């Protein structure tokens, strides 16, 4: 029996005890019971994570496949930009796509959230899982010295939308709808199939964990945490130079 099942069973016992005597103290708060449950949780074997990382070679493979032609010129270019931006920006699926097809400019990425510089671009995320105060955070994404450059890809994509207003969605489908999580997930699965990869083992989250795996080979822990925004201090004053250098090192990783 898994620890979670044991805890549910104990909670059931607690419920029946409260029915008999509402004043009875919670057995879940008993120090011995809590110690037992924590010990079982630590000793319980972890289940295998089905989600595999998109390593840099795999990212390059799927980008190459898109450049050969998959869904049409516009969609292929947009997906290339989304994938490279998500990978080098350590972005979560919900940060780069809309929750649904109903766009919210106060929550989702807009054209104005992108700022292009000479050797990198930035994204302003209005929301993020670890942004507890909802202050927003700037994500820095560097150019690379390879043909799979996120900056070049973003510039090419933006040129395909010359009439887009500043408050329009950053990523829109060929039909003009905001790119939703479901749309991105379905097209990523198809892309995996085109590349001979098991579509049930790769998700949008695979880009983030793949980026972390790649960066961990050369970046110090402090920079890695800032890149992935895993700590609250990452929102204070990020070392932009360290992040940019680490991203350049990622692009040339074996």
TrEMBL record:
InterPro entries: DNA_brk_join_enz, Integrase-like_cat_sf, Integrase_catalytic, Phage_Integrase-like_Recomb. Keywords: DNA recombination. Transmembrane segments: none annotated. Gene3D superfamilies: Intergrase catalytic core. One of its GO terms (molecular function) is DNA binding. Residues 53-254 form the Tyr recombinase domain. GO terms for biological process: DNA integration; DNA recombination. This is Tyr recombinase domain-containing protein.
